Amino acid sequence: MAGIEVLTPTVRRIRLEPLAGDAMPFSFAAGQYMKVELPVAIGPIERSYSICSSPGETGFVEIAVKHEPDGLGSGFLHEERESGPALRLSGPHGEFTWEPGSEEATADTLLLIAGGVGITPLMSVLLAAADAGHTGRIVLPASFRTEDEVLFGPEIEALRFRLPGLEVSVFATDRQGWIGYDELLPHAGLSTRVHLCGPPPMMQDLIGRLAEPGVPREAVHTEAFVSGRSKETRREKAHAIALAAAAAGVTEFMIDTVDGTPALPCGPGQSVPDAANAVGVALPQSCGEGACGTCWVRVLSGAYETDDRGMFSADELAAGWRRAGGRPARHCPPRTW
Questions:
Q1: pTM: predicted TM-score of the whole model, two decimal places
Q2: Are 91 and 121 in contact (CB under 8 A)?
Q3: What pLDDT was estimated at residue 306?
């Protein structure tokens, strides 16, 4: 770690540079994240953190980390009082991207909706837009629990001078509640591109509400990682499913398809991306675990266990849409995606 800055009592900005002081070994698009290996007491763990610095910076990357109660990764990064130690990074990852000059940059309005530390990848988008001299309309409604927890205030203020089309609204949820439909209505329509990142309940509500003024679903892009402890939770659930299936005499699930291709075998406790990868079926994915929400499935029959917080509207959940990182559950008939 090359630098640590306290942004709020619970959030730190951390700068990471190559040990040799050279350029970063990878480039990234605004909105992407990287994985960081952390040497905590129980052994190395890997955590995913969105990048908040500009893609134009080649000598470092910056992340913003919120200290989660009992979080091993965030706890380690918040307990380090000085720069260092050396950390192993991998990346970039993710499809939550915006790139100047691309087709997505031609939308009449770029609507960036942030909740809390969910503003982190959106800061990278704003910086990329400023570096490219973007003059289009960008609307940033951002909510934080209290005024004392507002993130990147000085940086956003400075960006107003570089982005002539930038409109910013900041909400303190302890007084004003979450960002609501009325706040989004003037900015949402058929030619709006949306990037949404924040608490899962807020995201689920807004995904559904954005359809009302005519924002196409494919124009709504979300980033919603489950908690840092979820990887271990997924392993525990996978083990429990495998044990229950063995007790019931089930040795394999079959995943039927809707395009006529052969059904995919899926072992008890195995995730859908793992099952698809094992037989060479191309499934859009980024994190490899089904945690980031790049890959979706629609469950038409059978039970299925996953964490879909913040990825879908209530109507989409009712229609069967789920993260593809889940697992067919025990005592189920074949299912179709």
A1: 0.75
A2: no
A3: 67
Of 196, 199, 147, 198, nearest to 173 by C-alpha is 147
Q: What is the pLDDT of residues 141-186, one digit of tens each?
A: 999 999 999 999 999 999 999 999 999 999 998 888 778 888 899 9
Tell me which residue has tokens 């730190």: 12
Q: What distance in Å separates the CA atoms of residue 337 and residue 150, rounded to the nearest whole number?
A: 41
237 confidence band (pLDDT: 50, 70, 90) = low
Dmax over CA atoms of the chain, in Å, equals 66
**β-bridge mates for residue 254, sequence order:** 265
Classify residue 212 as exposed, middle or buried by CB count within 10 Å of its CB (0-12, 13-18, 19+): exposed
Asked whether the beta carbons of 90 and 119 are under 8 A apart, the reply is no
Q: Which residues, including other chains, have CB under 8 Å from residue 316's CB and lie 6 or more apart?
A: 207, 208
* Residue type at 260 in one-letter notation: G
Alpha-carbon 63 to chain mean position: 13
Six token digits for residue 181: 């439909």
Assigned token pair, 58: 């080649």
Query: Three-class SS string for the chain?
Result: CCEEEEEECCEEEEEECCCCCCCCCCCCCECCEEEEEEEECCEEEEEEEEECCCCCCCCCEEEEEECCCCCHHHHHHHHCCCCCCCCEEEEEECCCCECCCCHHHHCCEEEEEEEHHHHHHHHHHHHHHHHCCCCCEEEEEEEECCHHHCCCHHHHHHHHHHCCCEEEEEEEHHHHCCCCHHHHHHHCCCCEEEEEECCHHHHHHHHHHHCCCCCCHHHEEECCCCCCCHHHHHHHHHHHHHHHHHHCCCCCEEEECCCCCCCEEECCCCCHHHHHHHCCCCCCCCCCCCCCCCCEEECCCCCEECCCCCCCCHHHHHCCEEECCCEECCCCCCEEC
HSE-up of residue 185 (Cα within 13 Å, Cβ side):
5
* CA nearest neighbour of 185 among 162, 161, 211, 159: 211
